[in-house]
Design a protein that fits this description.
Layout: H1 5-15, H2 26-41, H3 43-51, H4 63-85, H5 99-112, H6 121-132, H7 134-142, H8 149-154
Length: 156
């Protein structure tokens, strides 16, 4: 069994080389894996801490402080992703990779969390490019993803 997002996504990219969703250059592969590891270890953990502070501290009196800190760290991560994309077409540069759908998850969570995601110009452009992809829209619609419900209905 394969677990953890980084391993699952790398596996999907590697077993489907015809989709060109995983770099072929070994250094670029490692950079892609490193990016996904950062996603899983930084913004993903901040989101978890915001909604499950009891997994970080038993004392209920600190749960609100954990939520507050987690929300701030999550926003810092969103700003970092925006900088990462900058003038690139995709997360890893000019090639669409398995890291791009993973990044899209964070945009949706940020919007649902009430963060001003639309102020992140590069990340918003990335989100819009992702929503233009038929496969992405199909999955979001099939899964009735609550984080993109508005985006799907307004971009249909």
């Amino acid at each position: 069994m394969i677990t953890e997002n980084s391993a699952i996504l790398a596996y999907i990219g590697l077993i489907n080389p015809e989709l060109r969703m995983f770099p072929t250059d070994v250094v670029e592969q490692m950079q892609c894996i490193a990016q996904m590891a950062w996603f899983s270890n930084t913004p993903h953990i901040s989101q978890k801490a915001k909604f499950r502070p009891y997994q970080f501290a038993d004392e209920e009196e600190v749960h609100d402080a954990i939520r507050t800190k987690a929300a701030a760290r999550y926003w810092e991560s969103m700003v970092e992703i925006d900088r990462l994309i900058a003038d690139h077409h995709w997360i890893m540069g000019e090639q669409y990779t398995v890291a791009d759908p993973y990044a899209l998850v964070f945009y949706g969570w940020g919007t649902s969390n009430g963060l001003p995601m639309e102020t992140l110009g590069h990340f918003t452009r990335h989100k819009n490019q992702m929503l233009e992809r038929t496969a992405v829209r199909t999955v979001l619609e099939r899964e009735m993803n609550p984080h993109f419900k508005t985006a799907i209905s307004t971009n249909a």
